[in-house]
């Protein structure tokens, strides 16, 4: 099947098998390897991308489901090294191996667009859909606190 998507502002069209996962399409067809594949069951959050500005698990979607839609991957967010969330993650050492980081960032940016002043409990609830096996989450929580209010509302 033919799939046409806009990813990070660029138009892409490819022929794919109907059963191709969106995560595989992004990584293998388009070469955007910032989106990681962890559990392939939608539990770990490593494969999170934004569809229409909202976080989705790309391992739970077929590429054909994204036909004619707009996506953003970590490569689109990472174009701005001064992005408040990227800067805060760096300053608070909110990553170690980095495998999960893209998924966290792609989930947290929309959260902060809708929540300019989240409390710690709200932040921890927002983090619940993403797993990290290296950090203790403390640096991530502190980074989100710092970036809160700096992300432009939706």
What is the gist of this entry?
This protein is of the alpha+beta class and 154 residues long. The protein has helices at 22-29, 74-77, 84-91, 101-114, 120-127, 138-147, and strands at 2-7, 10-15, 48-51, 54-57, 70-72.
Name some characteristics of this structure.
single chain; 154 residues; alpha+beta; Ubiquitin-like (UB roll); DNA polymerase, domain 1; 2 domains; 5-stranded mixed beta sheet; 34% helix
Topology (SSEs and partners):
Layout: E1 2-7, E2 10-15, H1 22-29, E3 48-51, E4 54-57, E5 70-72, H2 74-77, H3 84-91, H4 101-114, H5 120-127, H6 138-147
Parallel strand pairs: 1-5
Antiparallel strand pairs: 1-2, 3-4, 3-5
Helix pairs in contact: 3-6
Question: Helix and strand succession?
Answer: EEHEEEHHHHH
Shape: globular
Q: Supply the CATH superfamily name of the largest domain.
A: Beta-grasp domain
CATH class of the largest domain equals Alpha Beta
Number of helices: 6
| Oligomeric description of these chains | single chain
Number of domains: 2
Q: What is the mean predicted local confidence, pLDDT? A: 94
Q: Which percent range describes the beta-strand content?
A: 5-15%
The CATH architecture of the largest domain can be named as Roll
Beta strand count? 5
Tell me the structural class: alpha+beta
Uncertain ranges: none
> How would a textbook summarize the main sheet?
5 strands, mixed
**What is the CATH third-level topology name of the largest domain?**
Ubiquitin-like (UB roll)
Helix content: 25-40%
């Amino acid at each position: 099947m033919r799939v046409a998507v806009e990813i990070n502002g660029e138009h892409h069209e490819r022929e794919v098998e109907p059963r191709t996962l969106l995560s595989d399409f992004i990584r293998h067809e388009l070469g955007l390897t910032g989106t990681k594949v962890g559990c392939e069951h939608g539990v770990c959050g490593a494969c999170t991308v934004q569809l229409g500005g909202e976080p989705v698990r790309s391992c739970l979607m077929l590429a054909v489901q994204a036909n004619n839609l707009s996506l953003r991957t970590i490569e689109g967010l990472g174009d701005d090294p001064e992005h408040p969330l990227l800067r805060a993650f760096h300053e608070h050492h909110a990553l170690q191996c980095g495998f999960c980081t893209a998924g966290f960032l792609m989930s947290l940016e929309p959260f902060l667009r809708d929540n300019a002043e989240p409390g710690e409990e709200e932040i921890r609830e927002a983090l619940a859909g993403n797993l990290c096996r290296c950090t203790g989450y403390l640096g991530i929580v502190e980074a989100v606190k710092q970036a809160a209010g700096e992300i432009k509302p939706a």
